[in-house]
Specification:
Elements (H helix, E strand, L loop, with lengths): L2 E11 L2 H11 L2 E2 L4 E4 L3 E8 L4 E9 L2 H13 L5 E2 L3 E5 L6 E6 L39 E9 L2 H12 L2 E6 L3 E5 L7 E5 L4 E8 L3 H14 L4 E7 L6 E6 L5 E6 L13 E3 L14 H4 L4 H9 L2
Parallel strand pairs: 1-4, 5-8, 9-12, 10-17, 13-16
Antiparallel strand pairs: 1-5, 2-3, 3-4, 6-7, 7-8, 9-13, 10-11, 11-12, 14-15, 15-16
Helix pairs in contact: 2-3
The structure holds fe (ii) ion.
Fe (ii) ion (FE2) binds next to strand 9 and strand 13.
Length: 306
């Protein structure tokens, strides 16, 4: 696959120092005042000043300089202007307003998570021991940036940009509303959804398992319960466990584990979903502010007065 990873995101916020403190508590490794790394992905987050919160830049890694040539040709063919250098290319998706930067990057090579023995009826697989997850005491460290969810004011244009242009594959969709797109074997690395204003809905960060989601989220909520958005639950599309929390600028951040992988494209049939399963399989009722974040009206007003 020419595309093989998300490299990094730059998120614009009005309150960089305060928001940086949140991502440090979230478990990312702080490199300096505004840059952060994950365990497996290296530097993956940069916070930059912006009058209103938004995704400024999305980085995607490719294998080879030739890949950049073919992506540039495809973007040009769908009418997108491309800026090209010897080792990168950049283009702006009109629907989401995000600058997408493609560059040659090393693949992510994760240390495999330990397989945890779990007891079940008639199956005492753990033997005579306590469960390993209850003994964990280290702070939770996200493994990588898994996906980004963006509101688009022109879903058709965004789909053309990311699918025909950049080369994402479609994994599932919600009819007329959203597309789950992948550039790796993860079920989704990008979700574009119809919205009245371009905005960042959430970034999602992989942890080892559901216990790590619980430990990480409860640690953040002990410090500030108002960070809670939605969780713990399990999505239907992508199958992942989730818990969403909010950074001080209003961007949602998700801890996730056990996302579907599409290791053989021929064996996956994309579905078109509607109804409650398009949102989740089980969990607390979905809060209205998850669908339409509380600051959406403010973001819409701000988009007319940048
Ligand atoms: Fe997500």
């Amino acid at each position: 696959m020419a595309l093989h990873r998300l490299t990094s995101v730059s998120i614009g916020v009005p309150n960089v120092a305060e928001t940086a403190g949140y991502y440090e508590e979230f478990g990312l490794t702080r490199l300096d005042e505004n840059r952060f790394a994950t365990v497996d992905g290296g530097e993956q987050l940069r916070l930059v000043p912006s009058p209103r919160r938004r995704l400024v830049e999305l980085g995607i890694g490719v294998g080879d300089p030739d890949d950049l040539e073919s992506i540039a040709a495809r973007l040009t063919a769908v009418g997108v202007a491309v800026e090209q250098t010897s080792d990168a290319l950049a283009a702006i998706d009109a629907g989401t307003g995000v600058r997408v930067v493609l560059s040659v990057a090393d693949p992510i090579d994760p240390r495999p998570a330990l397989a945890i023995a779990q007891n079940g009826p008639g199956r005492p697989d753990r033997g005579t021991t306590r469960a390993e997850p209850i003994l964990r005491e280290d702070p939770v460290r996200p493994r990588k940036l898994g996906h980004v969810v963006l509101g688009s004011t022109d879903l058709d244009a965004s789909e053309r940009f990311f699918i025909q242009g950049v080369g994402f594959k479609i994994s599932d969709s919600i009819a007329g509303l959203a597309s789950f797109l992948r550039c790796t074997t993860d079920h989704h690395n990008l979700l574009v959804q119809a919205a009245p204003v371009p905005f960042l809905h959430h970034t999602s960060w992989q942890v080892d398992d559901v216990d790590e989601i619980g430990r990480a989220a409860t640690a953040l909520l002990e410090k500030d319960p108002t960070r809670h958005v939605w969780g713990l639950g399990r999505h239907h599309i992508g199958s992942n466990f989730f818990w969403y929390l909010k950074d001080p600028a209003g961007n949602f951040t998700e801890y996730y584990a056990d996302l579907d992988c599409i290791v053989d494209d021929q064996l996956w049939t994309p579905g078109v979903w509607d109804g409650i399963k398009s949102l989740y399989n089980w969990g607390p009722p979905v809060p209205a502010s998850f669908i339409a974040p509380d600051d959406l009206a403010e973001l819409m007003a701000g988009s007319h007065n940048p």
